[in-house]
Amino acid sequence: MVNYIEIDMPRSCLVPLLCLLFVSIAYSQQTPKSYIAYRSFEKFNIDGLADESSWHAADKSDLFIDIEGKKKPKQETFMKMVWDSTYLYVFAKLSESHIWGNLKQRDTIIFYNNDFEIFIDPDGDSHNYYELEVNALNTVWDLFLSKPYRNQGTVLGDWDFKGLRSAIHIDGTMNDASDIDKSWSVEIAIPWSFKTAPGRETTVPENKFWRMNFSRVNWQFEILNGKYYRKKDVLSHKFLPEYNWVWSPQEVINMHEPERWGYVYFANQKPTNKATFEIPKDEHLKWFLYELFKAYSKNKDQSIIQPKKILGKQIVPKLHTTPYGWAIVIQSPFTKKEIFIRDNGKLSVL
What we know:
Layout: E1 34-39, H1 53-57, E2 65-66, E3 77-83, E4 87-95, E5 115-121, E6 129-135, E7 140-145, E8 155-156, E9 165-171, E10 183-191, E11 209-218, E12 221-224, E13 227-230, E14 243-246, E15 262-267, H2 281-299, E16 308-310, E17 313-315, E18 318-322, E19 325-331, E20 338-342, E21 347-349
């Protein structure tokens, strides 16, 4: 995401994978955050304000943290979610003392401006996921990715959430360098029809969870002749890296590791009737598989495929190789299901 060169391609493909040294750091991933999105039964006016009673009743997320989970951001960000039979609604408020932007064409590279980003992996296998970015001008870039960049997938930048609705509210003045602003907020309605089964039936995840994350890109800037510009290094004249503030820490500077995203549970009840959600135990096994996948992919050293105690159970991974590829397999002691990850990084459950 950061320290990329200035060319028109998605930034995360320019981020090198951080090396895993040996298996002792496997299963080192922190527990991702979780959020309960409640069902709404009222009509929404998408205006960026979140005035509806469902928004007032919905819980605020934890304040966003630096992408590595270590530093407190300079400005606060939080999000909320609710849903109904037609849409998934997302609201985010971003404190900002200088609100600016200049990208107005849909599906341009929005993160060259300050923006808010949504990442969605409905089945949690780290493949076939979605990204949506919007700036303070309400310019949208939505795209579909067949695989993370580490797995050399296909990126469809002209893919659209058909029927998407979004709006921005500015508490301040847009592109006015003479004053100090307070915040901007974004309200988004994503139609469930974007996730449609082969039989053309829209998938609504009632009482189920999706893997999701949210990111805020915030650039260092300078003001020249009353206009905002991304700031450049004095010596190299390259743009200074942006800040990346996220809901659930990635622990690495890369949003495109879906296995690190948070968990959003869609409770089929009103926000006034509080629900509970606990990350399933098998998810812990999946995190372990991803760490083994990254380590084994690096040097094909079979010695890293070692047992590990997780949630009080001894987990024994097994490596299966063929002339056509390999997979690491775990038999879950919790559900008796077989969980495996292939050499292309795709996770499957049988």
